[in-house]
Amino acid sequence: MNSRVAPPFPPNPAFGDVFGNWVWSGSRWVCTNTNGIRIVTQVFPASAPYMPSPGLVTAVVECVGGGAGGGGALSSVPPSFTVEAWSCGGGGGGSGGYSRIALASGLVAGGVNVTIGAGGAGGPATVQTTGGAGGVTSFGALCVANGGNGGGSNVSGAPSALDPSVGYGGLGGGPGIGDVAVWGNSGGSGGTEVFNPNLANSVVWGGFGGASFFGSSPSGAVDLAQGGGIAGNNGTFGAGGSGAASAVNTRPAVGGVGGSGLCVVTEYCWADVTDPGCGCGPTSGGARVAIGSQGWQGYGFDND
Predict the structure, then answer these.
(1) pLDDT over 80 at 35, yes or no
(2) Rounded to an integer, what distance in angstroms lies between the CA atom of residue 304 and that of residue 301?
(3) Pairwise pLDDT comparison (133 vs 299), residue with the higher score
(4) Can you give the residue ranges of every domain in the chain?
(5) What is the 3-state secondary structure (H, E, C) of 72-115?
(6) How far apart are the first and last CA of the chain?
């Protein structure tokens, strides 16, 4: 049985984790003992400093701004079973914009502060209000993605007035800074329905939240007038929150919360290997262990 000296691998690795010139394959550490380019991905779901990996040549940075909150909703009050009323759905929040840039290693030497834009709050069931705007996501001043705009509330007036506000969808975040900088997606408009209490039921829906580059579009709330207003659904990774729904039950409902932004840094690093054994040869001074499925600390490793 061959034996090697195992490097001090970190515990509990995830697929694709890199340690020196080693990569975790999902079942064992594999030595990348050839010169060339290796790719390292750093993901920032929260604000944190970025530090370049050893051997960095180029970093491709992608940012998406925070998604906006969806609009709230409130139906009108029918005074009797013979008067029509309104069922209302709030508008969906717009998603954060997307920006991408390729940076030479010298531009990020020493690190860069990454700021992740917060998602906007869901809008209340108040006339002429909107969900909260999404925050700005930035990689220093080099790559910036703007947050989305909130969806409009949809609140009916008194039954005699029959004048619900419009649950319009919020606009996506405008272009920021980058080699590529594009708008986010707008949210959908909420429904507005005339309800006749003599009918068996009423259905109203909130507008969908705008999808972002990284986050899918949350569907609008649906209220069947069976027990209360329905809050909007929350967005993820820069998507807007969806609009609330309030059928004829006079129950206010808040819009969904927008998803916080995201920053992904894809690094292209030079793998300059001087030791064909990846630094775990028999003379490196560490403990000797057998290669196999029960390798060092229970992990296999492949130095061939």
Answers:
(1) no
(2) 9
(3) 133
(4) 1-34+273-304, 41-272
(5) CEECCCCCCCCCCEEEEECCCCCCCCEEEEEEEHHHCCCCEEEE
(6) 14
